Amino acid sequence: MAMNFEQARQNMVENQVRPWEVLDSRVLNVLSSLRREDFVAAEHRQLAFTDVCLPLGHGEVMMKPVIEGRVLQALDVAATDHVLEIGTGSGFLTACLASLSAHVTSIDIHPDFIATAGQRLAAARISNVTLEVGEGVAGWQPAGQFDAIAITGAVHEIPPRFLSWLRPGGRLLVVRGESPAQQVLLLTHEGNGRYHEEGLFETDLPYLAHAEPPRRFTF
């Protein structure tokens, strides 16, 4: 029997995302309308709406729907915002951010992720996205600043360069700490080099390249 993806998507929103205190109507509408099943590998389509992280390859994962919902709600992206995403992954969160904002720049260290995400975004008729292959922690440098930044992989410590890419009043969402109890943080640029930090919830995600905890030597 063929799976009813439309019903599964609505069940995901109503039974997983909304109960996890995601109440922003714009976020719920995006998650209800975007075809998440089209942003996963063919062998995972039946699992697209389950409460699990799905493997993407290269040791990376696609966030659970509830985490995606909380991330989108916390960033509070406006229709005029320019957004940076570090870690394109499947392209689904990219699509959500693009649906809520004026433009998204998304980078990923893996060229195959960028190629596949580009195809998926084009199929979904989402065009306000610039995709680039780049290493965000120590290499890639943007041409300007952003209203919102989503870091979709974990970091042991927040690289100062991330904060320098944020406009005054802008928000940066990042997962910081040591696995398996990492903290999702929202940092708001208050101007004059000051940032307000708010802890949101705990999760466990793979680290961005070059952002892992330092190795501990034992004897």
Highlighted features:
two-stranded antiparallel ribbon; 219 residues; alpha/beta; seven-stranded mixed β-sheet; 27% helix; 6 helices
Gist?
This protein is α/β, with parallel strands linked by helices and 219 residues long. It contains 6 helices and 9 strands.
Word description of this protein:
The chain has 219 residues and is of the alpha/beta class. It is globular. The chain has helices at residues 5-17, 25-33, 65-75, 92-100, 111-123, 160-164, and strands at 54-57, 60-62, 82-86, 103-108, 129-133, 146-155, 166-176, 182-191, 194-203. It has a seven-stranded mixed beta sheet. Strands 1-2 form a two-stranded antiparallel ribbon. Strand 6, helix 6 and strand 7 form a beta-alpha-beta unit.
Shape: globular
- Judged by helices, strands and strand pairing, the structural class is alpha/beta
Rg estimate, integer Å: 17 Å
> Helix fraction?
25-40%
Number of strands: 9
**Oligomeric description of these chains:** single chain
User: What share of residues are in beta strands?
Assistant: 25-35%
Order of helices and strands: HHEEHEHEHEEHEEE
Topology record:
Blueprint: H1 5-17, H2 25-33, E1 54-57, E2 60-62, H3 65-75, E3 82-86, H4 92-100, E4 103-108, H5 111-123, E5 129-133, E6 146-155, H6 160-164, E7 166-176, E8 182-191, E9 194-203
Helix pairs in contact: 1-2, 1-3
